What does this fold into?
Amino acid sequence: MRIRLADITQPTQFREKVGPLTLDLGYHYGAQVEPVDLFLTVSPVQGGHRLDGEFAYRAVLPCSRCLEEARVEGIATFLLDYQPASQAPIPEEEVEVSIEETQILYYDEDGLALDALVSQQLYLEFPEKVLCRPDCRGLCPRCGADLNQGPCSCPPEGDSRWTALGQLQKKS
It folds into this structure.
């Protein structure tokens, strides 16, 4: 669904089902997000509109260590100001941006796509490292075996400092 911001002249509440969504995480991996119920209030403010919203989410992402499915859930809340791109300040030099300024989004088109809004908020909500379980052992860096299934057949890796010392002693 798209909301046309120019049509909103007084605070308006929306409750919309958005999704399911697939978010691109890079490296050919994605997050599968179940449909969410988005609660959103759009209010006109000077120069644009304020979006105050929240939604509960459940998603499946790849584990950061073993790439198996990891389940993530939570509640996303946000407060954003949308302003037309024509009002965006154009600094002539590099400037520091305040935390309040990071909450302002500038748009070219008057329509607000709710699936894009939810996707943007989910990218901010997902943890940096997702684990399938706290004690996940990950993959062997040499053969790629899943160490959660048991040890791999790779020989134990020795400390290169001892190997170098042994070669020096043989030369003496």
Residues 114-125 form the longest helix (12 residues). The chain has two domains: 2-136, 137-172. The mean pLDDT is 85.
